[in-house]
Amino acid sequence: MYISKVKIANYKGFEKAEVELKDGLNVILGHNNGGKSTLLDAISLVLNSERNRKLSVWDFYQGISLDTLKDKAPSVEISLYFSMSDAEENISSDAALFSSYAISLEPKLVACMTYVFFLPNTEIESYKEYVANASNTIEIMKMIESKFIRKYTYSIYGGKPALHQQVTSEDLRKIDFQKVDALRNVESELFSGRAELLHDVLSYFLDYNIKSSDKTEGEIKNEIKVKRDSFQLETQKNIDSLIERIKDGKNEIIKYANKTGALYNESDLLFDGSVTEEQLLRVLNILVSTSVGFNIPIFNNGLGYNNLIYISLLLAKMQSNKEISYMGTTNAKAFSVLSIEEPEAHLHPELQYQFLDFLRQNIADKKVKQVFITSHSPSLTAKVKLDELCCLFKDHRHKVNAYYPRKIYASEPKSKKFVQRYLDATRADMLFAGKILFVEGLAEQILIPVFVNLLGYNQDWLSQQAIVINIAGRYFDHFLKMYDGTNENTLPIRVACITDRDPARKRKANGSEKESYLSCWPIEYNALPIEYDYKNHSEEFVAKYANHPNIRFFSQDEHGKTLEYDIARMNYTNQNILTDSVANKQELKNMMSASTFDRLKSECKSAKLIDIYSDNATWEESDKLKGLIAARYLDSIKKGENALELANALMDLSNEEKENFNVPTYIKDAILWLLKKE
User: 299 pLDDT band (50/70/90 cuts)?
Assistant: First the structure.
């Protein structure tokens, strides 16, 4: 069995939500205050017998309307649905535990447990009278806090919640729920054997080589008994030796006791004692052996490594908790869940990857049934499988909703593999963003943050958590499936895409010869329609998404070609764009100083470009001038190197020089639309 679904009503940030989970590993992503911790807390309220299940008034969803609060006392309801794993049979130990709380038996068992925190019916009329004249919700919440919250109670029901069938405490104790909080002090659990976690684990693994052998149960018991008897004999010798060593001291103690009258009628003081293996385990401390031969105390070890040691001990404890031969039939756990908040704390990326593999292996080895992780780490998330992800987002009404990449790509295996490979090879920032600007290449990735700054929108960009994602090619379709708001289950994020127009042409077919499209300059586009067929990359995308609810495409106009071309076209007299890596810097300076197209041609060293930009009667002279400078600039740069140099050069400009730089129109439009500034 595994937790397949969680329904939450009126708990903290959740008004009413339904979150679907999967067997094995579940990685919960979302923004700060997005509901990740609340989801784990909700599961804990149902399953964790060791926690306090009484809530405070501020645990209620705070968006309940005034009229609703006056009509009905607020309550919290959390339902967990348990489904059978694919290969699981109805006779499994898990199924036996949950069978009493079934809500469905076909095709396989589905069970439900529901936590309800509520004001008893006997207090409802008093509540309504008390809050009747309240003027706002905060006032009512304070009334509840002062007069009613102590009267609230909770129940955990099994099966259909409406039937109010109580889950027995015995069944709840059969569930092993372990939670590692985000703010944790793991050293207190690791300092010594006096810490219960370490002591429990050491007790279980004592003589583990014997317990885990292939010998019969009787042989194992006899062998362990021999070990215990030998231990008891040796420790008793040491205790007797200690008693002998304090013999003379005892006589001094007796003298004091006689003087105080504590001893009478020739009574005596005797010392005796024994130490069991269990007691001696409590004096053991963890030391970490280093590669250079030092043994250091655990509290001097790194926080990240201590976190890993702590989680390892938890898993070892969960292993011992389900062992019937160790815990007994009554106490052994039948269902185990581990939840970890922000496991990346203090771990560098490579350790995060190793930790993920460790958890998957423990699930595969059936050491734990289900694991829940919350994370803010793009590094860790990059190594998570799409099927393992659950993304929590708040909509415009601040309602928390869950989204599942595994559902988005259920019928798109090719796109799923592509996106998974991309996430594996890069950071998974796109899963944490508030808004996304997809670009095709490194130059856009480098320069767009600079353009945002030049336009004065840096603060908006940061506050709206917008990011630039370089998909290294024209692979938009694969990624946009995750955000396509016209489909169900997609992530509710505003997405802008920037793509180059990249005009191309091919000579019309002549007999059996096959022609290929070749890149052409904007001035050549549609210039000879009888001889050539033409196409460009961007028009189809721009048109397709023109009216899309949350996705837009932006590209150059018909006089544009690439980012670099448009930078030069929009700044055809601005010599600040001529970086050190430009091959023919002086030539371009002279061209930028030309006041007429004829003068420009005399400064240009490319006869081919001069012919191309001269041989068109439909373009205005000013457009030809800008186009020829842009074409020569594009021919003179190395894209990646130039982008880095240009980004630095632009940021080093004076305020006046920055104002004189023209951000390409299509990029400006994309930024404005993404930030809702249009």
Answer: low
Beta partners for 3?
82
Q: Is-contact 88 94, C-beta < 8 A?
A: yes
- Our CA angle for 358, 364, 366, nearest 5°, is 105
Question: Quick check: 22 and 387 in contact, CB under 8 A?
Answer: yes
- C-alpha to C-alpha distance for 201 and 181, rounded to whole angstroms: 20
H-run or E-run covering 176: strand 175-180
Q: In what order do the strands lie in the sheet with 518-519?
A: 518-519, 504-507, 532-535
Asked whether the predicted pLDDT for residue 193 surpasses 60, the reply is no
CA distance 47 to 663: 56
User: Which pLDDT belongs to residue 90?
Assistant: 65
Torsion over CA of 410, 415, 417 and 421, rounded to 10 degrees? Answer: -140
**Best-predicted range by mean pLDDT (204-218, 223-237, 261-275, 524-538):** 524-538
Q: Which residues pair with 507 in a beta bridge?
A: 532
pTM of the predicted model, to two decimals? 0.85
CATH of the domain spanning 2-186+328-387: 3.40.50.300
Q: pLDDT tens for residues 437-452?
A: 999 999 999 999 999 9
Contact 594, 584 (CB under 8 A): no
Domain ranges of the chain: 2-186+328-387, 198-284, 503-536, 564-656
- Tokens read off for 152: 């609230």
